[in-house]
Amino acid sequence: MTADELAKLMEAGEVALVDVRSFEEFEGLGGYPCDPHQGHIPGAVHLDLNELYASGGEPGAIRRLLAERGIGEGARVVAYCHSGQRSEMAAALLRAAGVDAANYEGSWHEWSRREQPR
Questions:
Q1: CATH homologous superfamily for 3-111?
Q2: pLDDT, tens digit, for every residue of 50-61?
């Protein structure tokens, strides 16, 4: 999935976007110096990968974590992180819990290079 493909899905309201990085990365308080700026993709909700691990992979617990963030049953979820590694682990945990989940491989490293709205 490219950034443009993700943007189209987001525009159409066809995905719930989950940022699985740390709170500091999500809020733009920390991150990697290789990125032009810090923050998160507009419309994303924060769900740290560590919270998913803490659920023990229990489907009910994972669904509750998603529901707490406004993501309902049957939603198509796309996870991202900085470079696609943490989000691939998150997507695998979500899929194992029965969630329709995918990984945005380019993640923040790619998205942060897009032209930003002013």
A1: Rhodanese-like domain (3.40.250.10)
A2: 999 999 999 999
